[in-house]
Amino acid sequence: LKMSWFCLYVPLHLLAVTRLSQSIKAPTSSSQQSFKADVFNFYHSLILADGKETTIHLLKDIPKRYYFVLEEGRALAPFSLTVTPCDVPIEWSILVYQSPPGKATPGDHDTQGVSKSQQTPSLVSTIFNYKGNSVETYMGMSSHSALYLLEFLSTERDTHITVYLTTDTTSGHLYPELPMDPRIDVIGVGPTTVTLTWKHSPSALQHRDSIQYCLLVNEKHNYKSLCAAETAIRSSGMKLPPTLALSLSPYLLEPQQVMILSNSELSIINKVSSGEVRQVCMGTKNTYTVPNLSPSTQYYFDVFIVNLLTNASAAYTGTFARTLEEPEPKVTELKDGKVVHVVLDGKKQKFYSLQYQARHKKIHFTFQLCRGQIRVHITRNGKTVASENLSGLRYFSLKGKLLDTYLVQLRSTEESNSSVKVLASPHFHKPLFPLLPDSLKIKSFSKLRTCRSVTIAWLGTQEESKYCVYRRQIDEDQIWGELQSADRCSGPESRPKSEKVLCKYFYDLNLQRAVTTETIKGLEAGTFYLFDVYLFGPSGIPVRYHSKVVKTRKKC
């Protein structure tokens, strides 16, 4: 048996049967059936490759058998066998056929052609059996030649498993090594986050370039192996890349998957019927905070150590944690005719709540968007009455009953901070904010530009109001940031007096003619200027037009 396994594939079947027949003198009627069963088993078995992970597909209630033979001529023959169920629990066992120590090896013949093994029956014994869905490793040692039969059976449904056999236990392992304590510790829990830590794998410390940790988060249960997790996700109606280690290629993603790559961490979110399944690979970091979870929800966490070269993995002992309940948002009371300025944190994406109790049947809400993008949601006694994204100045006129309770919820729709001014009042005929034109844009006339002046125009209203113009010299690289961060609610009171150009009153009952222009003089050639127009209403609360940047001509 010192030739290659490839050459032995067919002869070993015949050799196995020959040894069985020689190990029994002459089968009696009582042993006839057992003898035939053994011969049948080997005729319908496959050889198990040494040093290679083998995927085996099992049909329900149909056993599948593999065998391997330990090499002859070795004083000790160690071997290791690892079986990984990829779905439901299975049954598997190891049977060994061997000759008693000190006796002739089955298959040896004397010079007269008489088999010595006919006088010495082989010993047949079951050395290991298991039922379950955990990853199990059997390590054995034999002092003489033996033939091993493996039998696998699934009684629940069709499934698949992986089997790894090696007789070389000294030159490393296919699977990454787990630490002595393979548990995952939960060290922090919040309403939307859970922080985990685990002990380093010896493999990660020795081979940082080819080893990485991958975390699986789901709302169903823990998984005992990576292939079990992948099988579960596929059974939810989704195709999954072969393993987390190979999920680094964006083109492998399915439409139901979202890949997020930030800070050298790869996150893949799968949308399945039982909730989100998140996969995060974070290199060799052994502490991770899982973000963007739902409050008051139980999550299961599994960490796998993955060998990027062989794609083999080992599973830590999974854990679970329940996120905390979301604290009740602080509610600010709105009072009649009092303006409330609200600043929203875009990164937290939380609602800011305002409450108003009506003392009149008709109520008017006014929102002036100062910066960013904001969504408003208004309910009356728990029922939605308005919901939309804000733009500029927005009025809501609502009719209800006395003592109705209104809840106004505001949320930033972008990552940067947003702000808005809110007013609630039963008296719409006395608005604190001025009447606004159809557009708050400032227009400049390119043909009227000179080296020393520019001409701008803006729309007015049918109501006589005060308009003040301000200018400021600006560098070209500051333009984008200045326009993005402009606070449309801020008044001119904080600006230097040197930036003020003029103030004027005007109106026109005919809206088609409610336009005014101004030529700003005394400017420098080839220079950028930022112009602002402020509109003041009866109450003195200003509304800022959209800033306009104009460059004077270089040569005239």
Automatic annotation (TrEMBL):
Give the UniProt keywords, A-Z.
Glycoprotein, Neurogenesis, Repeat, Secreted, Signal
Q: Where in the cell is it found?
A: Secreted
Domain spans labelled Fibronectin type-III: 176-313, 434-542
Q: Which GO terms describe its molecular function?
A: heparin binding
One GO cellular component assignment for this chain's record is: extracellular region
Keyword Repeat carried by entry: yes
The UniProt entry, under PANTHER family, shows: NEURON-DERIVED NEUROTROPHIC FACTOR, PROTEIN NDNF
Q: Function of this protein?
A: Secretory protein that plays a role in various cellular processes. Acts as a chemorepellent acting on gonadotropin-releasing hormone (GnRH) expressing neurons regulating their migration to the hypothalamus. Also promotes neuron migration, growth and survival as well as neurite outgrowth and is involved in the development of the olfactory system. May also act through the regulation of growth factors activity and downstream signaling. Also regulates extracellular matrix assembly and cell adhesiveness.
Name of the protein in its database record: Protein NDNF
Q: Which organism is it from?
A: Pomatostomus ruficeps
Top-level taxonomy = Eukaryota, Metazoa, Chordata, Craniata, Vertebrata
